[in-house]
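Running low. Any example?
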Amino acid sequence: MKTILIMRHGEAVPMQAQDEMRVLTQKGQAQANEMGWWLKSHYAPDAVLVSPYLRAQQTAEQVLALNPVEFNETCQDIIPSGDAAFAVDYLETLISLHPQYNTWLVVAHMPIVSYLVDQLSPGKMPIFNTAAVAVIEYDEVVHRGCFLKMQAPSK
């Protein structure tokens, strides 16, 4: 069994012409830091996939400062308009290629984070607060997950 953690980025500045360049607000940085501590004390990721968008990269940086990992990859497929089925296929391939990693963190955006949960644990499609983390227990043999819970920052 593996653990897959699906995380939405922290609070970002309002929409602008180049959505991929939006940065975290101070609150978003604090949210990412708080969830980084939560992850460190509960799950300690081994591997991370992160969206190329700046706000997701900044969120991952906050988390990884507290949780150094051996495998860290930027994935072009986990953007807001990305195809969740394709992204899950890619994640499952990485899991099979790197069996030594038991806890995978994916840092991305709404709405794809909700769709990722549904792809991994059909029938579950939570709405994510900023910096929230969905916890999925994943059986790589049958390619099926069980949604366990959602954890959100206190602020």
